[in-house]
Amino acid sequence: MSDSPTVICAQPDAGERAETADALADAGLAVEEVGSVETLTEALDRSVDCVVTAFDFPDGDGFDVVDAVRSVNPACVVALYTEHAPSDLPRGSPEQVVEYVPRTVPESRERLADVAAMAAAEGTQAAYPVPETETERLAAVERYDVDQLAALDAFDRLTALMNSHFDIDVAFVGLMDEHEERFVACEGANWRTLAREDTICTHTILTDETMVVEDTHEDPRFAEVDALKQLDIRSYAGVRLTDEEGNAIGAVCCTDSEPRRYTQAELDDLQRFAAEVKEQLLFRRQLQEDA
């Protein structure tokens, strides 16, 4: 028997399944291929470290896969590899991690293999969802000099106002690069960076709606993230920041050490703060590029 971590690759199309299995094998994983929910269920046992799966099958879908894995081995990570939007997909639980890798991103199979390898090795939150326009988004972020922005008083004043206005522990402005969130301003704490797999803003940049987590301990996406516990982040509200072309570059956020609900008026105010930050970022970038 191989000493390599074991991954089940479940896709109904044999050709696509073979390509995915090859990418997983290239990452050093022992791969078992299946083409249906039924055969996946038959192959499951507690020795399986990760399940990489499509969403649509002739005999079921991703919800059935997640349920099957949970019933046999809740510690096994499920990585959904699909074109479906994250809002349409099953979520994990405090006992079970469910990851999402969109098929539409560049080199998606290689990214999927990285997720599976990390999941098999660690058995914890393995990776993070990325926007479909990740390549363009990263190019947009590179246009901003975070160190230069962090030296400006304008963003410090805005986060200080946010901290006082919402009566929270921490208010911050962060830009999201390929592997970490870098803080332009942070009132109430001395945070400089946070790994992308550990920050709630990883999810905030995926939606144009205000991201609210009333209690991280009750949200399966964040309940087992050690970094959030270490930073004493129990509640969160954040608004995505975009450039003039609509690329998600970061977020404006509030965190607190206690569970918290936000009124609609407070969420509207947070949107206004984010709009001001967005204008300041654009203005500062234009000054930098014109210099």
Please describe what this structure looks like.
This protein is α/β, with parallel strands linked by helices. It has two domains: 6-127, Response regulator (Rossmann fold, 3-Layer(aba) Sandwich); 137-290, GAF domain (Beta-Lactamase). The chain has ten helices and 13 strands. Strands 10-9-8-13-12-11 form a six-stranded antiparallel β-sheet. Strands 2-1-3-6-7 form a five-stranded parallel β-sheet, with helices on both faces. It has a two-stranded antiparallel ribbon with strand order 4-5. A hairpin with a 2-residue loop joins strand 4 and strand 5 (60-61). Helix 1 (14-26) packs across helix 4 (108-122) and helix 7 packs antiparallel against helix 10. The longest helix has 27 residues, at 264-290. The termini are far apart. The mean pLDDT is 89.
Overall tally of domains? 2
C-alpha Rg (nearest Å): 20 Å
String of helices and strands: EHEHEEEHEEHHHHEEEHEHEEH
Physical arrangement of strands within the biggest beta sheet: 10-9-8-13-12-11
Mean pLDDT across every amino acid position: 89
